[in-house]
Amino acid sequence: MPQAYGGTGKRLLIVGQQTFGWSSDVDKRASDPIEWLMDNYDRFALGREYWASPFWQAAHQLNEKLNPESSAASFLWSNLIKVDQDGERPTQEVEEAVCALRLLPTEIEIVCPDVVVFFTGPRYDDRLRASFDLLRLVETDKTFSRVIHPALPHHSYRTPHPKYLRLSKQSDTLTRLADRANQVGPQDSRLCCRGLKDLVRFTR
Asked: Considering the entire predicted model, what is its pTM?
């Protein structure tokens, strides 16, 4: 977890659709595969070398709008589906087996974000609802919906994938979303995050 995350004005979690492959230089001889993966994640640095990517451009732009005085590496990123097959959405059998582990809800409980933005688009609404029982989507803008569930902060939204927003010339969606997310919500998620300081303290 980035050290800057805990000190931002609005702790932001970006959620993508699924992974897009893993590093091509996987060291199968690593003595500690988990440690190797964590180091690889650190080196990826929130898409530092992928500035041409609509996804990473949108993620950094949104964080800058929510936290203009914070560093570029002050938000978190995850995926709705934790694996892919050949860079695409996995088969239903694989997807259901992986998502049954409930990794994303657990991550959200641990890192306790103030704002969650699902860059997943409507094609993944079935998985979103399956991941959060009784979840509701309420359209609040022509291009994004509010995601309502007890496990999510008040400011949780689902938008089309940033590539679609760019191709359809709707990139101003990020500005409208940030304006809404900067409004004070009915709850302060920081009150429920007693363990966050300890979690940040033990990260590199």
From this structure: 0.86
